[in-house]
Specification:
The protein is an alpha+beta fold and 308 residues long. The chain folds into three domains: 1-36; 45-129, no CATH class; 147-280, Glucose Permease (Domain IIA). 24% of the residues lie in helices and 21% in strands. The strands form four sheets. Strands 3, 6, 8, 9, 10, 11, 13 and 14 form an eight-stranded antiparallel beta sheet that branches. It has a two-stranded antiparallel sheet with strand order 1-2. A two-stranded antiparallel sheet has the order 4-5.
Length: 308
Amino acid sequence: MSKKKKKGNLLMKVIFSSSILTIAFFMVIIIACLMILDFFGANITDNYVENNMDYADMYKETVNKALKNGYGYVPLNRILYFYLEDDKLSFYDIYVDNIDRETNKMKTISDVCTLPKYKVYEGCKDLDSGDQIDEEVNKPFSPPIDFEKITVTSFFMEERIVFGKSDVHGGWDLACGNKTPVKATCDGTVTQVSFTQKENVTNKNAGGGNQIKIKCEVDEDVTYEVWYAHLYPDSAKVKVGDSVTVGQELAGVGTTGYSTGPHLHYQVMFNGENVDGMSLIDFSDKLPKPTFGPTTPTYPGLNPQFRP
């Protein structure tokens, strides 16, 4: 074989090997990207769970049962932190295990991981690699409505279908009877009162329907905007510029605008971005009520744009 031919074969081998290495390199990058983008399953972020449609019904059933039993709030990402490691666990049991019975607040992740059933999990052995905030979070708000009277029909950042269209929800939908009182979650100032809908009916072209917004200055550096939508016609009890106090009645629940039935759309924004308004509510004055029967919870530790 000539030297020229040998060099040609060697060059082809180098090119071929380089191509394989290049392809392998890009495959690693692509797979990593797909994992980050949650191609293979639920992606838990700091604020919410992407691709959550598979868990939505189970979570809403759980949060409704918990709220009606007087428990505080546990977000879906905390439940999935444990459930994805062992899907034999009950959503409701995980929820209850994450509530401190003394304060009715969500426990820190390190506290939950001291419970016997969880401390053996990989996520508890290496908390530094997880996405859970391991500190008590400030809860400056009170409930915007009586939670004993509502049913959660949509949660923060839920991926869903409304009127046949895919949608990612920017707030919470709390279904209840027409004219149920809607309350100020904080001491604040009314920044918007828009009651353009005179009939309590669905209008797909009217967005949030009748709505009120209030600005809540928690401290010098933290200001939230709270948005109440789909309110009942002529039910507003405040006007723009009014100062309101926590618990003050603002209006009544309705089904005006892009709405599928009577409910309060409760949405909170910080610096123009949607945040989980439920996570800001202080539930400490609503201690759990005991329940009995086969589903009795146990306490091993005793401790964007508007989306309808």
